[in-house]
Every structure is written in structure tokens, then in C-alpha cells.
From TrEMBL:
Nucleotide-binding keyword on record: no
An annotated GO cellular component: membrane
The keyword Membrane is annotated on this UniProt entry: yes
Name of the protein this chain belongs to: UPK3B protein
Alphabetically ordered keywords of this record: Membrane, Transmembrane, Transmembrane helix
Encoding gene, per UniProt annotation: Upk3b
Transmembrane spans: 171-194
């Protein structure tokens, strides 16, 4: 009887970090199992990924040789397949490699045969369970635990899409109307204030110019000239002038 493979405590899982397309309708990403097979793998060994429907993972039997590896095209009938056969050295601690694996990412291998297992798109949402299996020239050598069930996204059926936009509730309509009215009032107030300020500035300029142009120049009032008194002559006294003493003429 073949020696049963070593059971490794590693559990495959979808990476926790944010990743574009981490789970889609036909694919999902797995964290790469680095340093998991150290001490069990030789240079010539290969690590495989086993993909099975969640309800069929308990009945899956490891293949005894590469000729018994279940291919992708038997998934609908066998409910499991093996893919991503990779040299064990690629999963060593020092190997430079991408941090994730993409399951179901090869759309060009739908019709390939048993001799060339492929990584084709998954045909249904699942759920699926996966595990890594280390195989040597004499059969399986080590395996990881099965993952938790992985459910893919479901594509929406065209018949379930409503082409008519959903009507908004009355409360939303009332709130939107109030906000629109307040916005209109605010805009009107601001425009009115700006218009009044500009109009006042123009009026001040007009008043200053017109006041200068229309202002009449008025001369100072000059009273009419009074009659000058006649010069005094000898022997004549103007009326109203009284002389108390008349001086005799000086002798010649």
C-alpha cells in the first residue's frame, strides 16, 4: 500500500487585502502557499491545486500518479479537477513569485484533454473548496487542509433588471424641492446684493460729475457806488455843515 501523504496544517484562503477582481463570476484569487512544503519536497516534485465542489470535497481521492490527475473538463461529472501544476521550488521561501494565484483565469483551455490539465473558468458560482497536493514520481507526498467554501459572484439575469428607474419616495422629493428652493433664494439674494452695490457705485460717480457741471458760479454782491462829496471851496459851505468861527482872510 502507498504511504499516505503528510497532512500539513496550512489552510488555503482568499487573500484578505483589497484586490481588483478578487472574486468574480468565474474566477477567484488564492494566497500563494510560500514556505508550506519545505522539508517535504524534492527538486522533481510538483505542487497541484485540487478544486472541488464543496459538497464533493469529502469524497475526493488523491490520484496515485500523474496519469490519474482529473482534468478540468470532467468537473461537471466528477465534481473535481486538478490544475496549476507547478514545480515545488516555485513555492520555496526564497523564490520570487507573485503573492496570489488566479483560479479559473485561462479562457483558452476549455477543450484541452487529460494530458494537458488547464485552469479554465469555473462554470457555476459553486461554492468550491480547494487544497494543495504535493506529488512526486511515486505519488502524493503531502497535502494541505481543505479551504473554507468559496462562493463566486452571481451574474444578474437580464430579465431581473428593471429598465424603469426606481421612483424616489415622497420625503426625498420634498427634501430635494426644499433644498432647490433655498439654493434659488440664496443665489437671488447674492445677485441682488451685488447689483445694488454696483448701482450705488455708479450713482455716486454720476452725482459727482453732474454737480460739478451744473454748479453755477455766483459772483460776490457789490453794492452800488455812492456819490462822492464835492471838494470844498472858499466861501462855500455845503448844506448841513456849520462853522462856529469864520477865520478872516490872511493879510497880503
Amino acid at each position: 500500500l502507498p504511504t499516505p501523504p503528510a497532512r500539513l496544517p496550512y489552510v488555503p484562503h482568499v487573500p484578505p487585502m483589497a484586490l481588483l477582481g478578487k472574486v468574480t463570476a468565474t474566477t477567484f484569487a488564492l494566497e500563494r502557499p510560500c514556505c508550506v512544503f519545505n522539508g517535504h519536497a524534492d527538486v522533481s516534485d510538483t505542487v497541484w491545486l485540487v478544486v472541488a465542489f464543496a459538497n464533493a470535497s469529502a469524497t475526493f481521492r488523491n490520484p496515485l500518479s500523474l496519469a490519474d490527475v482529473p482534468p478540468y473538463k470532467q468537473l461537471p461529472t466528477a465534481h473535481s479537477y486538478m490544475t496549476l501544476g507547478t514545480a515545488a521550488a516555485s513555492y520555496s521561501c526564497s523564490a520570487p513569485s507573485p503573492p496570489v494565484l488566479r483560479v479559473g483565469g485561462d479562457t483558452a483551455c476549455r477543450d484541452q484533454g487529460r494530458q494537458d490539465p488547464c485552469n479554465g473558468p469555473l462554470p457555476s458560482p459553486g461554492p468550491y473548496r480547494v487544497k494543495f497536493l504535493l506529488m512526486g514520481c511515486r505519488g502524493p507526498k503531502a497535502e494541505t487542509c481543505w479551504s473554507e467554501p468559496i462562493l463566486l459572484r452571481r451574474a444578474a439575469s437580464p430579465s431581473t433588471i428593471n429598465p424603469v428607474p426606481t421612483r424616489r419616495g415622497s420625503a426625498v422629493v420634498v427634501i430635494a424641492s426644499i433644498l432647490a428652493s433655498l439654493g434659488a433664494v440664496l443665489v437671488t439674494t447674492v445677485l441682488g446684493a451685488l447689483g445694488a452695490k454696483m448701482w450705488g457705485s455708479l450713482c455716486h460717480q454720476d452725482l459727482g460729475t453732474n454737480a460739478f457741471i451744473r454748479r453755477s458760479y455766483r459772483t460776490h454782491h457789490i453794492p452800488p457806488a455812492l456819490p462822492q462829496p464835492l471838494p470844498l471851496s472858499s466861501g462855500y459851505n455845503p448844506p448841513g455843515l456849520c462853522c462856529s468861527v469864520l477865520q478872516p482872510p490872511a493879510p497880503c
